[in-house]
Amino acid sequence: MNLARKIRMPIDIVMTILSIILMGGNYLFPADIVHEILGLVLFVLWAVHITLNRRWYGAIFRGKYNPYRIMQTIINCCILLCTILLMISGIILSNHIFTFLNIQGGLGFARITHLIASHWYYLFMSLHIGMHVGMIANKIKQKRQVGKDSVDEAHTTRAPTIKIILHILLALACAYGLYAFIVRGVWKYLILQQQFFFFDLERGYILFAIDYISIIILFATLSHLIATILKKNR
């Protein structure tokens, strides 16, 4: 049980990083086999993630549902559905790892499914992160308070100022995330207004990562705010 707690957060971090990399499609790699390998690694990590959280999935049909639990269940189930669709479509589109299956048809369906499922997965993953931000922050806060019997007066004075600065930075990151969401055309993929993935080479790889990280921050913040409201009202 202690081992599960220790590896849960590192696994989640690795999964988030892999998700950002994979959103770049094959444009980030000289060979598309790298995309397939990373996709397979992400799927394996999802299997581990579900195993570590099997009690939550086992309790889906038990107990009462309040608005917060409904939101959490919808987000988690949608992520799981997107993951399954990504794996199935990825196997069909595979040019290397799964060629031994000799799948002949369904390439057009698989391409569209992979495109739309990957972007919905990214959106729900961001919402999922937002619902756990409070828990992560509380754990960090508890670790910092271990061994401290008193709070330094200077630190207490600086705390409100630091908090205001962090809120301003968060607001700016969310504003840029909205900009990136529109400029990158992520919304078009979600409703299939654009059926082919476009990578803007002029903006470069670093800016691509910044854009997609800011999109995570945007939707994670929205999810966190909604979850906080639902928790207070339940």
Give a topology summary.
Elements: H1 2-22, H2 32-52, H3 54-58, H4 67-93, H5 107-145, H6 153-183, H7 186-190, H8 204-233
In short:
By secondary structure, this protein is mostly helical.
Following the backbone from N to C, one meets helices and strands in this order, namely HHHHHHHH
Mean pLDDT: 87
Assembly type: single chain
* Topology, number of strands: 0
Query: Cα distance, first to last residue?
Result: 29 Å
Largest sheet: none
Tell me the β content. under 5%
Measured as a percent range, the helix fraction is over 70%
The computed structural class is: mainly alpha
Provide the gyration radius in Å: 20 Å
* Global shape: globular
Q: Can you characterise this structure?
A:
By secondary structure, this protein is an all-alpha fold. Helices cover 76% and strands 0% of the residues. It is built from eight helices and no strands. It has helices at 2-22, 32-52, 54-58, 67-93, 107-145, 153-183, 186-190, 204-233. Helix 1 packs antiparallel against helix 2 (32-52), helix 4 (67-93) crosses helix 5 and helix 5 packs across helix 8. The two termini are 29 Å apart.
